[in-house]
Give the backbone structure.
Amino acid sequence: MHMVKMTGKMGTREREEVKGKATIRLLCGMALAVMVIAVLVISAKPGSGAGGKTALSQVLVSPDSEVDIVSEGRDPGPYPIPPEKLRVFPTDADIPADQLNRTIDEHFVPLARPAPPAAGQFDAWRKGLLDELRRVSFAYFPPEVPPAKPLSYVGLDGQRLESETGIELRLRWPKPEDRDSARRVLLAVLGEDDAGTVPDWAPKLTGEGEVLVLCEPRGIGATRWTRKNPPNYVERSHALLGRTVDAGCVWDVIAAARYLAGSPSPAASASQRSVRVAGRGGAALWAAYAAILAQDIGGAVLVSPPTSHQVPGAPQLLNVLRVGDVPDLLGLIAPRPLTLASVAAGDFARTVTIYEAAGARPNLRVLANP
């Protein structure tokens, strides 16, 4: 019994010694850290010499762990490994003619080739195609996109609008004096090349008694974000949410059109103000899809629109080619007026066929020049 008691006392004493040593080590470490910080702060003060300042910067600023090994621009390089040594085939001419790499996505998900509507079947054809387009490409859109909310005026001719929470677009009136008396509006949607200007094509498209209003959707003009390819932060963020920037621009056009349609002058009623949409290049398809999705838009004028979603500059819309391509989907605007300017008629033969099936061929104009 005596030995057991002695062993117990020795164990307690050892534990106390261990705790004491650990406490001393902790205090010493804290003191040392305080001393190091104090020396660095003092050495970084003006007049303390460049060495101290460098030491502080080395402690507070960690070096970038991501280093661009190849510079950007017209003269990239130097390359750690010559690009030609990384190729499987020495030149493009050596790539097998039957390769599928460049079109493999078309084999996984075949491109849609919707047949034109049969006689008397246009309404059913249009509903089926439009429902599928909404489902696969604009699934996050509500049944009806609400009108944009006014935020503030910018100078005499501009206005800031909010289409979604935190999303801003701009409207501009080339003739501000017509703003209060407008009964008919042509909403010209601008791309980045036309931002901040009154492009020469836009005034030519206005009809008699129609007021021109310019629309710069999200990411265009005053709301432009930094674009760098890669990393395409904004564009990739949209994709992670099941959206694209281009689909957002379509939303903006619809919201702007409904804002204009619902805010007439005191002398006019809401039923008297009509809105058509227009655009050039890729922006023309923002206008087109706004007219496709919003039946209250009176028509569309498209200048040099892309002939396919597979050509450079065409808007990127999720899964759109699973429904149809540009000439097919433009037919969904029928029977409302549609003008295609600066195009080759053969590129939109399917659009012509659809308008004929809808009994609205007179409402489709195909022009070589605007």
